[in-house]
Specification:
heterotetramer; A: 612 residues; alpha/beta; Pyruvate-ferredoxin Oxidoreductase, domain 3; Rossmann fold; 4 domains; 7-stranded mixed β-sheet; 6-stranded mixed β-sheet; B: 340 residues; 8-stranded mixed β-sheet; 3-stranded antiparallel β-sheet; 12 strands; globular; binds thiamine diphosphate; binds iron/sulfur cluster; binds magnesium ion
């Protein structure tokens, strides 16, 4: 048994080859085994490309470790390539000397041509550069599943389980988890249980008996904090966070949404949980999605809408309405590569400025961003909390990388999450000129400046609201210049006051560094890893990560003032940098990458280094 | 929703304290009056009544109603009302919209709200013009209309809102006009009773930018011969002496005929409850604009499952099957493991 | 536009160098083939042909055509195509759209392009599902459909695209399906010939997310009895032995009947050229989904003024009246004075 | 004859009283007389309020002068108030001792109540504070028009002309212009010509004979540059600028627009000028408005769309498409009070950040802003020039104040405006792998980085474009990370390079001040007037005004560096300030007003003063 402290494995094949399943299952048994881990599913564009071509390649990368890790790894140690296209698309990522396992059956002329190889790369110098193993996976799978009587064309489909079996053997994964999963997943189709199990076992056995691979490796369980864990993707965590928030607020939720990559899964997940009192509407478009959510919010429910960039554009007018109505509303943007349709399955952080300024008029909205898959859970609750307390739309930013990536998640104590206090207006709160009691829908809480939330149904509180400027307190339409100025400033102030409730920034700065690396959103893992590496080399560097992008934490200016240099890595052209520069007049140094991919740790490391 | 315990109200109870800001003479006043006079009859409560509108002259309506209300953004009222009606089935949700609001920018939300059959009552104030923005043509303006934006005449074929609604699977469609309060009240009452989406087109005079658009059929002396009043189960006859009728044309269609020329068996009997909307559609095509005999009344009124209650039924069913959600169980529903 | 001097082309000339990226077995392939095989027949030029699409599997279509093309944004292709067709009447403008693209997010642009009667040919690939986003229900999905976003079944009544188009004043409406290349080619040819907006609904199988949606009527052995082929001027009969027909129902509607039970005079004679769309609408209601006998063919084809040419006519008229614009005169068209 | 060097007159009445016409006519005869002038029509909200109420008051303010002026004036010297509501709504604006002319007929109990007066203000202390003249205008008008046989109810409607006549006498305006206008305007209704002319003359005569008013005043013609003048509102100038641009580019134009206040008039104006080859489409909504414009641009025409804030929100997704398509497109935003429906007839500069960042993804777009009504003409041409040269959407910002305000405009020499060069791709521009000539739709101009504009119709240039990321040069869909990064940066660089063509900033700084007042957009007049006043008091202050907001002029950083303080007045909460701070790390001082009204010169003056 060779002990590794961590390993990065990448499963790659055609979109139809089941690589996401293989990666997911490997992740799962590793999680249950007790490793720390981080995953990165790397999809092709939404539509299927012709089988065997480069655009059709789908990959799943997983990093498992016996210690705390934060990214799916830069350069795979092991690549499983199910066909020439998968090899070609991923070869460049590997570390020198990596293990390369290919399905040799797929390296026929047709597939080589489709991948654009004029010669068979297996016959080239690959063997010198990597540990190359050619395994006829298709043949072996068909062979192994013969006893079931499956037709070769059908049996062949299980070759992902063969590959999984082989890798499971190679890294000494417990086999039971996978076999049980196969059993339960294909319950309805017993033939598939048989075929897939046999293929999986054949993969294990092949590793065991082929005497090709030397000793199996092992990656010990990580020393993680005690407790019960699960493994979640960001989108699932986000959906669960919304369910939790509805429960914590003891208020029904309505999601109005229109499908769009990579946000659709939140709709899918939430629509399963109707027993929590959650209604989901697949609306006719994004405008109707937010429209229905606003309607629900007016009705006293928690209105939520989920989307990605192009949908955010479309929702902007209705967001402005919600700003004026001063109703709670949760708007979730799973950022993807832009502009326009852009790169729907890729990841980017390029919607930050839009979140802040993407509406006409002075239209301030709190903005928060999740930093890891499991943090999506917390942020969903935080978004609902802000919205409900402050009676305001809130934008929550996630991105494609968080949405589909997963990590082990120490389950929170449900009881220990503070409840979300929902208070509806219940009676008159003012008097008219004649001293008669009346309801003032825009009378504000002195502390938060929030107006009353007064859903229909209460006699005496009837009132009308709308997108025209309103008189403060009465809420009546008002064209009065001074009132408009007042309302513009009150709406801005209401959002700014939220800073009072934001906890001080946690700066990780063990050795009083002179440079601070400041991040937000999904770059948390990569930045943390880069900072660790730099420190491991004896460099001192401080790190802080923002959850709140609007307003900023109250102490941010002070914190920034403590450092000579502020370095801001972002997957955009410098959007947080722009905000920081404008707000604090700090000459922030941007590290900017906009290629649809998460940062590589080593690239980040070398980009930060010169500033230390 | 009719509420047996609702305290009796009068028109005044439904009138807000806001000054009504339409031009003097605008048809919107009589529609407002019809609604405010109807509501006391319906046995409904102010606090359970909501008017949602978009933008336009018509869309100021909610301000004048002493109920809950939202004057939202242009064209989006049906979507907002849908969210409200689905989450709060205890409320009466009315949508007030204009021909521009509902049929131009808001056309998509309208047709989807209709096919979705969500329990909202949509009043479409059709004045065949953009009033609020001071007189551009609208999707219901006749072709060739000269307006500020079409100094040489507009070029499009107008929508027939009844036809469009029927093409969009609307389960309740009616038409009325601002000169007949009783008829309006009857149509609004029927629309309100309907479980599901109901659309009432109201011919409404904009005396400032499109005065007399409905003169040809609504002038006092024109009405008898130009309003075809639809009554369920009745043969469709009209004219001062019922001298005109709607008859079938022998090839699956209908036509206007002189009653004397047609045998009684050939006169169409109106069937608003027909599941198939074809007859209602055919009736909607009798006139291509409000210039020749035009049907008013209920074109279609059929019972189909209502959206909001089905959403609720799915929730209730899920609760009865799985119990009302257990958060801890949810978080543990995937693979879990314990680190000790 | 047919161009008498257009050089002869072959299917290959219309095929771009981009690899086709639909799932193997997808109905989109046969539609693509039908178009690529038809265009050489039409006597049109590649450089004068433009395909505009929105977003969706169907919407990838333009990439595969060796013509000018735009893969635009979700739902907006009819609007973009309108601008192109109006400014460039010399071009053949085709729109390719899916049921989600055209009827969900793009519903409003669709119905307005139709009533505007702008000279574009719209191919609506109806697979009753969202393909590209991996299988949510669409506005044409049958009620009760279980999909990723409706694990307990969808609740809305689907749109019938033909009914909706007729309700929106569409001057040319046809339906075809991806299993019959000849019929597709004929429908596309007719749609292309039509001056004004034409809509062809194409039943298209999405074998990955909604396989077999049209099996009931398109399975080889089901077609004869389940496809009602509409032919202008012909009595509407169908079935292997013409044993079925569409007859009038005596109250202004139509119904399916056994031919033996009906006198010939009562069989509906299809009239696609009827100015009144009521018959076409009634035919569109014979089936409420592709499960019972369903008409295919041209429902309506009437001549009405085309939008773009009228826009051009107004421009030409203005030029002939006022001369082509004189900028100096324009700037001096208000009050002027001279400071010396 | 009392000589005044300038006077500010405000006509105020009910919406139905024809005050806009009276103001407009007064403006007109003053313009033709040779005064410099500036106007400010101050509408109520779009919808008519009940006659006689405060929300129904409509006013028109005009400033005429014998010297160069830049604003419609802060505090009227003369107020004409046609009813109590008009008096009440406008009294607060007047300078002490101003002339106050009221239609005493309208001060009956009903009207007083409607205006919220419990006592008749004419019986109060008004007479002490102002020069009050009570004129029974209704009666006098009816009397004067009796000879025509007009019914009193009809005759009464001409009282605006009576008021106009009186003021025309008071300020010695030439009468012919107005009489001719009446003649031609009401040509079709001779009865109206008679009634209105008689009312107008009656007003003049009343002034002459009533011995109430003392001597008439005169405001001499201003010494303006020689040449032919006209008087235009910003919206008309903008429409004409678009017509001119189409002509200068020798390319047909298509406007796709949806009506919205205060932009609709551009649609109205352009739709009159079909003989210039301009097509206008009133689209079903704002998205279709920009959609049709994009379609036209793809077809090689100049595609334009016009709107105001809420419409901008809706257009944002399509703007992103145009950014990706790299097609010329002109997007015009007549800003109004926001957020949401806000204050549709009021003015604000609060869409600047949205113009820059209101789209998902990195989606850079050039932004320019007009600074005066006549400057709208130049800016429209500039917008088309940039769009066509650079193949990019361009946003042009105006606002409600510019849109409806007017000023004398020295007509440009049409021939001297440089032509706009439109070049379409005409042939192959590259070769494929086999050396065959091909067309590369995204091959860029080395200088501008613009791609070819290749409208359909040219054999051999067939190509497909779309919103997905494209490979540079070939334009084929590409998911390649490096290509995406390249394209994101190329699109940004393309816009940045425009700075090369922007002329250096004109700083007006006669005495090497230490503070610079920097503005943009419609505040130009107010800032200029404030600066003049400060200088008149011996203060030194520099002034510069930006037309280009993205990119900024290349020398802006250098210019800012020359001053100790940079003061930025804006009708928003500090949007340009934010951009300047972020870009140049300059601690810009904002003077911010968001009340829907243009700056008052004196307010601006005192806000600037402390920083000098
Ligand atoms: C997004 C948006 N676009 C445009 C407008 C301007 N607008 C307000 S109402 C209206 C049309 C009103 O017409 P209609 O719906 O027929 O109502 P009416 O005034 O005739 O009652 C328009 C174009 C707006 N407020 N918002
Ligand atoms: C504004 C916007 N919203 C949502 C999407 C995501 N989206 C892309 S295609 C599509 C629906 C596709 O369905 P359909 O039009 O039926 O085409 P098909 O894939 O079935 O051919 C959706 C929701 C998008 N690209 N843009
Ligand atoms: S503009 Fe027309 S619709 Fe609007 S209030 Fe006036 S009369 Fe009524
Ligand atoms: S998902 Fe369906 S519609 Fe899309 S390409 Fe695949 S089979 Fe065709
Ligand atoms: Mg209207
Ligand atoms: Mg589809």
């Amino acid at each position: 048994m060779i002990e590794d402290s961590s390993v990065v494995i990448r499963f790659a094949g055609d979109s139809g080859d089941g690589m996401q399943v293989a990666g997911d299952r490997f992740t799962n048994s590793s999680a249950i085994f007790g490793n720390d881990l981080s995953t990165f599913p790397d999809f092709p564009a939404e539509i299927r490309a012709p089988a065997g071509t480069l655009p059709g390649v789908s990959a799943f990368q997983v990093h498992i470790s016996d210690h705390d890790i934060v990214t799916p790894g830069d350069a795979p140690d092991v690549l499983v390539a199910m066909n020439p296209a998968a090899l070609r698309a991923n070869l460049g990522l590997l570390r020198p000397g990596a293990t390369l396992i290919v399905n040799s059956d797929a390296f026929d002329e047709r597939n080589l041509a489709k991948a654009g190889y004029s010669e068979n790369p297996l016959e080239g110098d690959l063997r010198d550069r990597f540990q190359l193993f050619e395994v006829p996976m298709t043949t072996l799978t068909i062979e192994a599943t013969k006893p079931t009587g499956a037709k070769p064309r059908d049996a062949e489909r299980s070759k992902n389980f063969f590959a999984l079996g082989l890798i499971s053997w190679m890294y000494s994964r417990p086999l039971g988890t996978t076999l049980e999963w196969i059993e339960s997943k294909f319950k309805a189709k017993p033939a598939l249980v048989q075929v897939n199990s046999l293929a999986f076992k054949a993969g294990v056995n092949f590793g065991e008996t082929a005497e090709l691979f030397g000793s199996p490796h092992s990656v010990k369980p990580a020393k993680l904090p005690k407790g019960k864990y699960t493994s979640v993707t960001g989108n699932t965590a986000l959906a669960w966070g919304l369910v939790a928030a509805s429960k914590l607020a003891n208020t029904p939720m309505l999601l109005g949404s229109y499908p769009i990559t990579p946000a659709s899964d939140i709709l899918h997940e939430l629509s399963k949980h109707k027993n929590f009192g959650i209604a989901t509407i697949q609306a006719e478009d994004e405008i109707a999605g937010i429209g229905t959510a606003i309607g629900a919010a007016f009705g006293g429910h928690i209105g939520v809408t989920t989307t990605s960039g192009p949908g955010m554009d479309l929702k902007s007018e209705a967001m402005g309405l919600a700003v004026n109505l001063e109703l709670p509303l949760i708007i979730i943007d799973i950022q993807r590569g832009g502009p326009s349709t852009g790169l729907p399955t890729k990841s980017e952080q390029s919607d930050l400025l839009m979140a802040l300024y993407g509406r006409h008029g002075e239209s301030p909205v709190p903005v928060i961003a999740a930093s890891s898959p499991s943090d999506c859970f917390n942020c969903a609750i935080e978004a609902v909390r802000i919205a409900v307390t402050c009676r305001t739309p809130v934008i929550l930013l996630s991105d494609g990388y968080l949405a589909n990536g997963s990590e082990p998640w120490l389950l929170p104590q449900v009881d220990s999450i503070p409840a979300i206090k929902v208070e509806y207006a219940s009676g008159h709160n003012g008097t008219d000129a004649n001293g008669e009691p009346i309801f003032l829908p825009y009378l504000r809480d002195e502390e938060t400046l929030a107006r009353p939330w007064a859903p229909p149904g209460v006699p005496g509180l009837e009132h009308r609201i709308g997108g025209l400027e309103k008189e403060n307190e009465t809420g009546n339409v008002s064209y009065d210049p001074a009132n408009h100025e007042l309302m513009v400033r009150l709406r801005a102030e209401k959002v700014e006051r939220l800073a009072r409730d934001i906890p001080p920034i946690e700066v990780n700065d063990p050795d009083e560094a002179s440079a601070l690396v400041l991040g937000w959103g999904s770059t948390y893992g990569a930045i943390t890893a880069a900072v660790r590496r730099l420190r491991a080399q004896g460099r001192s560097v401080a790190q802080a990560h923002l959850r709140h992008l609007n307003p900023f934490p109250a102490d941010l200016g002070k914190v920034l003032g403590n450092y000579e240099k502020v370095v801001i890595p972002e997957m955009n052209l410098g959007q947080l940098s722009k905000l920081i520069r404008a707000e604090y007049l700090v000459d922030a140094i941007g590290i900017n990458q906009v290629n649809g991919q998460p940062f590589k740790v080593h690239a980040l490391e070398s980009a930060i280094e010169p500033h230390l | 929703m009719t509420d047996l315990l609702a305290p009796p109200t009068t028109r005044k109870d439904w009138t807000s304290d806001q000054e009504v800001r339409w031009c003097p003479g605008c048809g919107d006043y009589s529609i407002l009056a019809a609604v405010q006079m109807l509501l006391p009859d319906l046995g409904v409560r102010r606090e359970n009544t909501v008017f949602v509108s978009g933008i336009g002259c018509a869309a100021r309506f909610p301000y004048y109603m002493n109920t809950y209300g939202m004057h939202s953004i242009h064209g989006r009222a049906p979507a907002i009302a849908t969210g409200l009606a689905v989450s709060r089935p205890d409320l009466d949700v009315w949508v007030v919209s204009g021909d521009g609001d509902a049929l131009s920018i808001g056309g998509n939300h309208l047709i989807h709200a209709l096919r979705r059959n969500v329990n909202i009552t949509i009043l479409l104030f059709n004045n065949q013009i953009y009033g609020l923005t001071k007189g551009q043509y609208s999707p219901t303006s006749e072709s060739g209309k000269i307006t500020k934006s079409t100094p040489f005449g507009s070029l499009e074929t107008p929508f027939n809102p009844v036809s469009l609604a029927l093409g969009a699977e609307c389960t309740f469609v009616a038409r009325t006009h601002d000169m007949d309060r009783k008829h309006m009240m009857e149509m609004f009452r029927r629309a309100h009773e309907h479980q599901g989406a109901s659309l009432v087109e109201i011919y409404q005079n904009c005396n400032v930018f499109n005065d007399g658009a409905f003169e040809d059929i609504l002038a006092k002396d024109a009405r008898a011969d130009n309003l075809i009043s639809l009554e369920h189960g009745q043969p469709i006859k009209f004219g001062a002496d019922s001298q005109l009728c709607v008859a079938h044309d022998g090839n699956g269609g209908v036509r206007i005929a002189n009653s004397v020329d047609v045998e009684d068996a050939e006169v169409i009997v109106h069937d608003e409850k027909a599941q198939n909307p074809a007859l209602a559609f055919a009736l909607s095509r009798l006139a291509s604009g409000p210039h020749t005999p035009t049907p008013i009344g209920v074109f279609r009124s059929v019972e189909m499952p209502e959206y909001g209650s089905q959403v609720q039924a799915q929730i209730d069913h899920a609760k009865s099957q799985k119990g009302s959600g257990d958060l801890e169980a949810l978080l543990s529903s995937g693979p879990t493991w314990t680190v000790e």
